[in-house]
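Homework help board

Subject: predicted structure for assignment chain

Our instructor gave us this sequence and asked us to write out the predicted structure in C-alpha coordinate form, then describe one feature. I got the C-alpha coordinates but I'm not sure how to describe them. Can anyone check?
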Amino acid sequence: MRAPAGYVWADSPLHRMPAAPKLCGLVACVALVVLASTPVELGVVAAGVAALVAASRVGWRAAGRAAWGMRWFLALVLALNALLFSEVDPLLALGPLHLTVAGLAQGGRVVARTLLVVVLGSLLTATTRPQELVDGVRALLSPLARVGAPVDAAALAVGVTVQFVPTLLRESHQLMRAQALRCGAVASRGIMRRAVSYVRLLVPIFVSAMRRADELSVAMEARGYRLSPPRGAARAGEKETRP
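My C-alpha coordinate output:
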Protein backbone atom coordinates (compact mmCIF):
# COMPACT_ATOMS: atom_id res chain seq x y z
CA MET A 1 0.00 0.00 0.00
CA ARG A 2 1.39 3.40 -0.99
CA ALA A 3 0.63 6.82 0.39
CA PRO A 4 0.63 9.94 -1.78
CA ALA A 5 3.90 11.43 -3.02
CA GLY A 6 5.59 8.05 -3.41
CA TYR A 7 5.63 7.06 0.27
CA VAL A 8 5.81 3.29 0.73
CA TRP A 9 4.42 1.79 3.89
CA ALA A 10 7.01 -0.44 5.56
CA ASP A 11 8.68 -1.07 8.91
CA SER A 12 12.37 -0.32 8.58
CA PRO A 13 15.04 1.71 10.38
CA LEU A 14 14.85 4.36 7.64
CA HIS A 15 11.09 4.74 8.12
CA ARG A 16 11.53 5.20 11.85
CA MET A 17 14.39 7.68 11.52
CA PRO A 18 13.42 11.38 11.89
CA ALA A 19 13.36 13.44 8.72
CA ALA A 20 16.09 15.91 9.71
CA PRO A 21 18.86 13.28 10.05
CA LYS A 22 17.70 11.70 6.80
CA LEU A 23 18.02 15.03 5.00
CA CYS A 24 21.53 15.49 6.39
CA GLY A 25 22.38 11.94 5.36
CA LEU A 26 21.06 12.63 1.85
CA VAL A 27 23.33 15.65 1.52
CA ALA A 28 26.31 13.61 2.74
CA CYS A 29 25.54 10.73 0.35
CA VAL A 30 25.16 13.11 -2.61
CA ALA A 31 28.52 14.66 -1.71
CA LEU A 32 30.10 11.19 -1.73
CA VAL A 33 28.54 10.47 -5.13
CA VAL A 34 29.90 13.72 -6.57
CA LEU A 35 33.38 13.15 -5.13
CA ALA A 36 33.62 9.57 -6.39
CA SER A 37 35.60 9.63 -9.63
CA THR A 38 37.11 6.18 -10.20
CA PRO A 39 35.09 3.05 -11.03
CA VAL A 40 36.12 1.52 -7.71
CA GLU A 41 34.87 4.53 -5.75
CA LEU A 42 31.60 4.60 -7.70
CA GLY A 43 31.23 0.87 -7.08
CA VAL A 44 31.67 1.32 -3.33
CA VAL A 45 29.12 4.15 -3.26
CA ALA A 46 26.70 2.09 -5.38
CA ALA A 47 27.08 -0.82 -2.94
CA GLY A 48 26.25 1.53 -0.07
CA VAL A 49 23.14 2.81 -1.89
CA ALA A 50 22.08 -0.77 -2.59
CA ALA A 51 22.45 -1.56 1.11
CA LEU A 52 20.23 1.42 1.97
CA VAL A 53 17.58 0.27 -0.49
CA ALA A 54 17.64 -3.22 1.00
CA ALA A 55 17.43 -1.85 4.56
CA SER A 56 14.51 0.42 3.66
CA ARG A 57 12.33 -2.52 2.51
CA VAL A 58 10.62 -0.36 -0.11
CA GLY A 59 11.62 -2.62 -2.99
CA TRP A 60 13.83 -1.99 -5.98
CA ARG A 61 10.88 -1.04 -8.17
CA ALA A 62 9.88 1.88 -5.95
CA ALA A 63 13.49 3.00 -5.51
CA GLY A 64 14.30 2.86 -9.22
CA ARG A 65 11.02 4.06 -10.73
CA ALA A 66 12.22 7.64 -11.19
CA ALA A 67 15.55 6.47 -12.60
CA TRP A 68 13.77 4.26 -15.15
CA GLY A 69 11.67 7.23 -16.21
CA MET A 70 14.89 9.11 -17.05
CA ARG A 71 16.32 6.34 -19.24
CA TRP A 72 16.09 8.26 -22.53
CA PHE A 73 17.58 11.39 -21.00
CA LEU A 74 20.44 9.36 -19.55
CA ALA A 75 21.01 7.66 -22.90
CA LEU A 76 21.25 11.10 -24.51
CA VAL A 77 23.72 12.25 -21.86
CA LEU A 78 25.85 9.16 -22.45
CA ALA A 79 25.81 9.68 -26.22
CA LEU A 80 26.72 13.37 -26.01
CA ASN A 81 29.64 12.68 -23.68
CA ALA A 82 30.84 9.78 -25.78
CA LEU A 83 30.77 11.81 -29.01
CA LEU A 84 31.82 15.29 -27.84
CA PHE A 85 34.09 14.83 -24.83
CA SER A 86 37.39 14.20 -26.62
CA GLU A 87 38.96 13.88 -30.07
CA VAL A 88 42.02 11.86 -29.01
CA ASP A 89 42.28 8.32 -30.44
CA PRO A 90 38.69 8.14 -31.76
CA LEU A 91 37.09 4.74 -32.17
CA LEU A 92 34.73 6.22 -34.75
CA ALA A 93 34.73 9.62 -36.45
CA LEU A 94 31.62 11.13 -38.02
CA GLY A 95 32.50 14.68 -39.04
CA PRO A 96 32.72 16.78 -35.87
CA LEU A 97 31.65 13.80 -33.74
CA HIS A 98 34.32 11.50 -32.34
CA LEU A 99 33.48 8.38 -30.37
CA THR A 100 36.31 7.85 -27.87
CA VAL A 101 37.06 5.65 -24.89
CA ALA A 102 37.53 8.74 -22.72
CA GLY A 103 34.13 10.03 -23.80
CA LEU A 104 32.46 6.72 -22.99
CA ALA A 105 34.13 6.67 -19.58
CA GLN A 106 33.06 10.24 -18.84
CA GLY A 107 29.50 9.52 -19.97
CA GLY A 108 29.39 6.41 -17.82
CA ARG A 109 30.50 8.36 -14.76
CA VAL A 110 27.89 11.08 -15.33
CA VAL A 111 25.11 8.53 -15.84
CA ALA A 112 26.17 6.53 -12.77
CA ARG A 113 26.25 9.61 -10.56
CA THR A 114 22.86 10.76 -11.82
CA LEU A 115 21.32 7.35 -11.22
CA LEU A 116 22.69 7.17 -7.68
CA VAL A 117 21.43 10.65 -6.80
CA VAL A 118 17.97 9.90 -8.24
CA VAL A 119 17.75 6.62 -6.31
CA LEU A 120 18.77 8.39 -3.09
CA GLY A 121 16.08 11.03 -3.62
CA SER A 122 13.47 8.36 -4.35
CA LEU A 123 14.55 6.52 -1.20
CA LEU A 124 14.02 9.67 0.87
CA THR A 125 10.48 10.27 -0.42
CA ALA A 126 9.63 6.56 -0.15
CA THR A 127 10.57 6.40 3.55
CA THR A 128 9.43 9.87 4.68
CA ARG A 129 5.88 11.20 4.77
CA PRO A 130 5.42 14.67 3.24
CA GLN A 131 4.53 16.26 6.57
CA GLU A 132 7.59 14.69 8.21
CA LEU A 133 9.72 16.06 5.39
CA VAL A 134 8.29 19.54 5.91
CA ASP A 135 8.96 19.31 9.65
CA GLY A 136 12.52 18.16 8.98
CA VAL A 137 13.23 21.08 6.65
CA ARG A 138 11.75 23.47 9.20
CA ALA A 139 13.90 21.99 11.97
CA LEU A 140 17.09 22.28 9.91
CA LEU A 141 16.36 25.85 8.84
CA SER A 142 15.10 27.03 12.23
CA PRO A 143 18.40 28.78 13.13
CA LEU A 144 17.94 31.01 10.06
CA ALA A 145 14.62 32.25 11.42
CA ARG A 146 16.54 34.39 13.89
CA VAL A 147 17.88 36.50 11.02
CA GLY A 148 14.48 36.85 9.37
CA ALA A 149 14.70 34.03 6.81
CA PRO A 150 11.28 32.71 5.63
CA VAL A 151 11.69 29.25 7.14
CA ASP A 152 7.98 28.38 7.07
CA ALA A 153 7.70 29.40 3.42
CA ALA A 154 10.70 27.24 2.49
CA ALA A 155 9.29 24.23 4.36
CA LEU A 156 5.91 24.75 2.71
CA ALA A 157 7.55 24.92 -0.72
CA VAL A 158 9.26 21.57 -0.10
CA GLY A 159 5.99 19.96 0.98
CA VAL A 160 4.06 21.31 -2.00
CA THR A 161 6.80 20.18 -4.40
CA VAL A 162 6.83 16.67 -2.96
CA GLN A 163 3.06 16.47 -3.42
CA PHE A 164 2.96 18.15 -6.83
CA VAL A 165 5.64 16.28 -8.77
CA PRO A 166 4.05 12.79 -8.64
CA THR A 167 0.65 14.29 -9.50
CA LEU A 168 2.02 16.09 -12.54
CA LEU A 169 3.85 12.93 -13.64
CA ARG A 170 0.63 10.93 -13.44
CA GLU A 171 -1.25 13.55 -15.45
CA SER A 172 1.55 13.66 -18.03
CA HIS A 173 1.28 9.88 -18.50
CA GLN A 174 -2.49 10.17 -18.84
CA LEU A 175 -2.11 12.87 -21.50
CA MET A 176 0.39 10.73 -23.39
CA ARG A 177 -1.97 7.75 -23.32
CA ALA A 178 -4.85 9.93 -24.49
CA GLN A 179 -2.73 11.27 -27.34
CA ALA A 180 -1.70 7.74 -28.31
CA LEU A 181 -5.36 6.66 -28.43
CA ARG A 182 -6.33 9.60 -30.62
CA CYS A 183 -3.28 9.86 -32.88
CA GLY A 184 -1.42 6.59 -32.54
CA ALA A 185 1.61 5.69 -30.47
CA VAL A 186 4.25 8.41 -30.35
CA ALA A 187 7.10 5.89 -30.47
CA SER A 188 5.96 4.63 -33.88
CA ARG A 189 6.53 7.99 -35.58
CA GLY A 190 9.61 9.64 -36.97
CA ILE A 191 11.96 11.70 -34.85
CA MET A 192 10.55 15.08 -35.91
CA ARG A 193 6.92 14.05 -35.46
CA ARG A 194 7.78 12.53 -32.12
CA ALA A 195 9.44 15.78 -31.00
CA VAL A 196 6.42 17.84 -32.15
CA SER A 197 4.08 15.49 -30.26
CA TYR A 198 6.06 15.92 -27.06
CA VAL A 199 6.13 19.71 -27.48
CA ARG A 200 2.35 19.77 -27.86
CA LEU A 201 2.06 18.08 -24.47
CA LEU A 202 3.79 20.99 -22.75
CA VAL A 203 0.79 23.32 -23.06
CA PRO A 204 -1.80 21.06 -21.36
CA ILE A 205 0.75 20.04 -18.72
CA PHE A 206 1.49 23.70 -17.98
CA VAL A 207 -2.25 24.52 -17.84
CA SER A 208 -2.84 21.59 -15.50
CA ALA A 209 -0.02 22.72 -13.21
CA MET A 210 -1.41 26.26 -13.06
CA ARG A 211 -4.92 24.95 -12.38
CA ARG A 212 -3.74 22.73 -9.54
CA ALA A 213 -1.67 25.55 -8.05
CA ASP A 214 -4.73 27.84 -8.12
CA GLU A 215 -6.91 25.15 -6.51
CA LEU A 216 -4.29 24.61 -3.81
CA SER A 217 -4.04 28.32 -3.00
CA VAL A 218 -7.85 28.64 -2.80
CA ALA A 219 -8.06 25.57 -0.53
CA MET A 220 -5.34 26.93 1.77
CA GLU A 221 -7.01 30.33 1.98
CA ALA A 222 -10.39 28.68 2.70
CA ARG A 223 -8.80 26.81 5.60
CA GLY A 224 -7.34 30.04 6.98
CA TYR A 225 -3.71 29.13 6.36
CA ARG A 226 -1.27 32.02 6.84
CA LEU A 227 2.53 32.06 6.83
CA SER A 228 2.33 35.01 9.23
CA PRO A 229 -0.47 36.51 11.32
CA PRO A 230 -2.61 39.16 9.61
CA ARG A 231 -1.54 42.75 10.08
CA GLY A 232 -4.69 43.61 11.99
CA ALA A 233 -4.17 40.74 14.42
CA ALA A 234 -0.52 41.68 14.88
CA ARG A 235 -1.41 45.30 15.64
CA ALA A 236 -4.15 44.24 18.03
CA GLY A 237 -1.67 42.00 19.80
CA GLU A 238 0.80 44.85 20.03
CA LYS A 239 -1.85 47.11 21.56
CA GLU A 240 -2.83 44.46 24.09
CA THR A 241 0.73 43.90 25.20
CA ARG A 242 1.44 47.58 25.69
CA PRO A 243 1.29 48.74 29.32
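Reply (TA_rk): Your C-alpha coordinates look well-formed. For the description, you could write something like this. Residues 1-5, 230-243 have pLDDT under 50 and may be disordered. That's the kind of observation they're looking for.
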